Amino acid sequence: MSAKEFYHKLIPPNLPYLPPELWQTILREATFVLSIFDPELMQSSELSTNSRDCFKAYKHSLKTRNNLVRVCKAWYTLGLPYLYEYVLLGRARCLIPLLCALRQSDSSGEIRAAGWWVRRLDVNLRDESGESLDAFDTVADILLFLPNLEILTFYITGHAFESLRDKHWGGVLDASRTCAKSLKFLHWYNHNQCLPREAELTRFIQAHPALESLSAPVYTKRDANMSLNAVKNLYVYPYEPHSSASLGLCELDLQSVRHATYRCFDRDPQPFRRVNKLFFQKIGPQLTSLRLIWSADYNFATQGTTLAQCLRDTRDEILHHCNSLERFDLHTHQYHIKQLHFLAFPSTVKVFGIRLDPVQTSKQKFHLLVDKIRALLEEYRHVKVLQFLDRGNVRCLRQNPTVLADCVRAMKDLGVQVQDDEGQSLQ
After folding, report:
1. What percent of the chain has pLDDT over 90?
2. Which domain of life is it from (predicted)?
């Protein structure tokens, strides 16, 4: 039996003892990786322990997939959806082989070629040298073969691409029109380089009305007609538009947004305060969950006054506008533990999640963290759950049982349950 006959189910497959549906289930279970389609998996320099563990599991799974599809033609056909469902581009040298494979599969005459099965594409190029412009053109060509792509992320750090800042994204974004009906997540993790122009991002948004999650630290054209009614998850960077003709994402009509990730401050306090106020006035009342990021690279030793003022401004805006908030998450650095007293929770918040960098934090720092959290939650007794969001933090806690016991006991006295990153109770 040929793979083509099996694939199109023209005749029953000749697989011993088991029907093809069970073989597909076996292959799926043998190669399944939890959270591989979590949009936040690729978080650039903020990559969590959970994400690192997921990548390790995926690499191991990919070896299994490669071995399974080489068993026979029927197994290749069965395993093809799982082999190409997630594509991670780490080097420019991977682009041409992938493009050739997609072209060959597309020209083979099969109704569903390899590109049909790709659901997630992470463009994480880190080359230090090479033909960077050709790489962008190749990425655009690859996107033409991915009609069912759901998640698209960019994190380009290689020095070879520094000269392309604000250039050459038009072809890449225009090529993504192939998956306009299926694309739901666009996440950009480049904050200061390799970003699209306003006109390019505007065209992209206009062509993708089904977007549900958007992270892009750039602006759109003010006079453009755009609809983002499907966006539920928004990532906001407190950068002010360069001209009156530009429009920040939080200024658009985002009536469906319920979850937001917000970088709590920028190095220049004045633009931050303006964007800060605008964001919480417009989006705050409809949010049910909010994650604040206190940047780890911020030099608190020299800019402590600016940080304190920015945190106070953010706290005041949250209390005034976020009246439907149910969950509040904080991602911060251990250097900022002492600043937890700047936090405040609206009376609707029931869950407080925290992620501390670096994940391998000392016993003394965790003791200080527990003391600060206890003092904070004594003031806001309506919070009922404390969750440690990073698996590395949880492991560190488990390695220090006295700290964990003190934390659980202190929270129990306040009527607060302590949970790990999976939502299980910590004992």
Report:
1. 17
2. Eukaryota
